[in-house]
Write a structure and sequence with these properties.
The complex is a heterodimer of chains A (about 240) and B (about 220). With about 240 residues, chain A is an all-alpha fold. Helix content of chain A is about 80%, strand content about 0%. With about 220 residues, chain B is an all-alpha fold. Classes of the chains: A mainly alpha (about 240), B mainly alpha (about 220).
C-alpha cells in the first residue's frame, strides 16, 4: 500500500473516529486544553500589555521575555510541571501551553497601544479625557487589530503546541501520532500519517478562520493603512496640530 | 508529589556518573542544530534574494514558509518519519522547514531596507546585477540576515528536543527518558539546562560574529 493510501484506509474506519480515544474524542480534548491555555494566557497578557503599552514602559523586558520563551523547550516545561506542586493531569499542560502563548499576546497588545497616533492621544487629552478614558475610548479601540493579530498567532501556536502534550501522555491529537510511533514505524505508519494529517488540517483551518476574524476586527479604513505601513498615516496627518 | 531525597531536582552525582550520555546528547544536539541552520541559510538566503528580485514571487514564498511554520512539529515528523525512517535526515528536514521562515523573512526585510539611492549609486558606478547583490545589497542586509540566523538557531535548539520521536532528540532524549523512568528529576533538569545553555552559547557566538563583521554597529548592538 502506498504512503497516503494507508492513512486514508485508517481514516476511513469509523471506529477510529468514534472510539473513546478516537479522533473525535481526541479533538475535543485537544481543543479543551488549548482553549483553557489561551484564556489563561489572555487574562495575564492583555491587561499587562495594555498597561505597559499605555505607560510606554517595559519594551526591552518584552524582548528578553520573547527570547527566553523561544529558547525554552516545550518538552522541558511539560515534563517539569507535573513533578512540582501543580501535580499531574490537565493543569500542568494548560500552564505550559499558556506560558508560550503569553509573548505573542503581550507583544501585540503592547505594540497596538504604542502604535496609536500620538495626536489622537493628544486630542483625547485636550478634550479633557482622563488616563483611563484615553485607554478605553481611544487607545484600545485603535489597538483592536493588533490584539486580533496577537490572538490569531497565540491561538494557532497553542493548538499546534498542544500536540506535544502526547509526550507526557497528556491527551490531545498528538496521542494518535505518538501511539503510532509506539507501534513502530512499519506497523504504525497508517496511524502516524493519519494523525499528522488531522492535526495539520486542524491548525491550518484555525489559522484561516482566525485570519478572517482578524480582518473583520480591523475597521475598513484601517485595513489599507495597516497593510501599507505607517508611512500612509504620517503623510495623511501633517504635524503641527494646535497642541504643539 | 513529596520530595524524595533520592530524586532531587539537580545532582552533580548524576552529572558525574552520566557524563558519557550527556556528551553524546550534546554532540547530537549541536550537530543537528548547526546542520539545520547551515542548510536553512543556504536555502533561505537565496530564496529571499529571489523573492526580492522577482516581486511577484515574494508573496508565494512568504506564505509557503508561513504555512510550513504553522504545521505542528510533531505532525511534520509524522509525515516525514514513515518515508525516511528514524534517521538524522528526517530530523534535519523537519527542522530546516521550520527554520526557513525566520531566515527568509529577516533576509527579505534586510534586502528591502537597502536604500534606493545606494542602489542607484551602485548602478551608476557600473555594478552589474551580481556585483550589486554581492557587494552592496547583501552586506547592507547582513545585520538583518544575522538576526534571522540567531532566531533560527535559538528556536532550533529548543525544537531539536521534539526530534526525540525519530530518536534524534539530543537533550530531549534525556528529558523524556528521565520522565518515563519514574520521573527521574536530575536527568530532566540536566537535559533542560543543557538546552538552555546551548541556546545561550550559540546565540552569543552569533552576536560575536556580528561584532566581528559589523564593527561600525558596535555601539548600537551593545546591550
Amino acid at each position: 500500500m502506498n504512503y497516503f493510501e494507508q492513512a486514508f484506509v485508517w481514516l476511513n474506519d469509523p471506529l477510529n473516529w468514534t472510539n473513546p480515544d478516537g479522533i473525535l474524542a481526541r479533538t475535543a480534548e485537544h481543543l479543551e486544553i488549548s482553549a483553557a491555555a489561551i484564556l489563561l494566557a489572555i487574562v495575564v497578557a492583555w491587561p499587562l500589555g495594555i498597561w505597559l503599552g499605555h505607560a510606554g514602559r517595559g519594551g526591552a523586558a518584552l524582548v528578553v521575555l520573547a527570547n527566553l520563551a523561544r529558547a525554552t523547550p516545550t518538552v522541558a516545561l511539560l515534563t517539569i510541571f507535573p513533578l512540582t506542586v501543580i501535580g499531574f493531569g490537565y493543569p500542568p499542560i494548560v500552564l505550559a501551553l499558556a506560558i508560550f502563548a503569553v509573548p505573542p499576546l503581550l507583544a501585540n497588545a503592547y505594540l497596538g497601544m504604542r502604535e496609536v497616533d500620538p495626536e489622537a492621544r493628544d486630542a483625547a487629552r485636550g478634550m479633557g479625557m482622563s488616563g483611563t478614558q484615553v485607554v478605553f475610548r481611544v487607545e484600545l479601540p485603535l489597538a483592536v487589530p493588533y490584539l486580533a493579530n496577537g490572538f490569531r498567532t497565540g491561538a494557532v501556536q497553542v493548538v499546534a503546541t498542544a500536540t506535544l502534550a502526547a509526550f507526557v501522555n497528556g491527551g490531545g491529537l498528538g496521542m494518535i501520532i505518538s501511539r503510532g510511533f509506539g507501534l513502530g514505524i512499519a506497523s504504525g505508519a497508517d496511524q502516524i500519517i493519519a494523525g499528522g494529517l488531522v492535526v495539520i488540517v486542524l491548525c491550518l483551518a484555525l489559522d484561516g478562520l482566525l485570519a478572517i476574524g482578524e480582518r473583520l476586527a480591523t475597521p475598513r479604513p484601517l485595513r489599507r493603512v495597516l497593510k501599507a505601513g505607517r508611512s500612509v498615516t504620517d503623510a495623511q496627518l501633517p504635524t503641527g496640530s494646535e497642541t504643539a | 508529589m513529596p520530595d524524595d531525597p533520592r530524586n532531587p531536582w539537580f545532582s552533580w552525582e548524576y552529572v558525574r556518573q552520566n557524563i558519557d550520555s550527556l556528551t553524546t546528547a550534546l554532540q547530537q544536539h549541536v550537530t543537528l542544530t548547526l546542520a539545520t541552520v547551515a542548510v536553512a541559510a543556504l536555502l533561505g538566503i537565496p530564496l529571499a534574494v529571489v523573492a526580492h528580485r522577482y516581486g511577484p514571487l515574494a508573496g508565494p514564498i512568504l506564505s509557503l514558509t508561513g504555512v510550513l511554520y504553522t504545521i505542528p512539529s510533531l505532525a511534520l515528523f509524522a509525515l516525514i518519519g514513515p518515508l525516511l525512517g528514524l534517521s538524522f535526515t528526517t530530523a534535519l528536514i523537519g527542522l530546516v522547514l521550520y527554520a526557513l521562515l525566520s531566515v527568509v523573512r529577516n533576509a527579505l526585510t534586510g534586502l528591502r531596507q537597502v536604500p534606493a539611492d545606494v542602489r542607484d549609486a551602485a548602478n551608476g558606478m557600473g555594478y552589474g546585477r551580481l556585483g550589486l547583490l554581492w557587494r552592496v545589497e547583501l552586506p547592507l542586509a547582513w545585520p538583518s540576515i544575522l538576526t534571522g540566523l540567531r532566531i533560527a538557531t535559538v528556536s532550533t535548539v529548543a525544537l531539536v528536543t521534539v526530534c526525540t520521536v525519530v530518536s534524534y532528540g539530543g537533550f530531549g532524549n534525556l528529558i523524556l527518558t528521565g520522565f518515563n523512568n519514574n520521573y527521574y528529576k536530575p536527568q530532566i533538569m540536566a537535559g533542560t539546562i543543557g538546552c538552555l545553555a546551548l541556546a545561550l552559547i550559540l546565540d552569543l557566538i552569533l552576536v560575536g560574529l556580528g561584532r566581528l563583521t559589523m564593527p561600525w554597529a558596535r555601539r548600537r548592538v551593545a546591550r
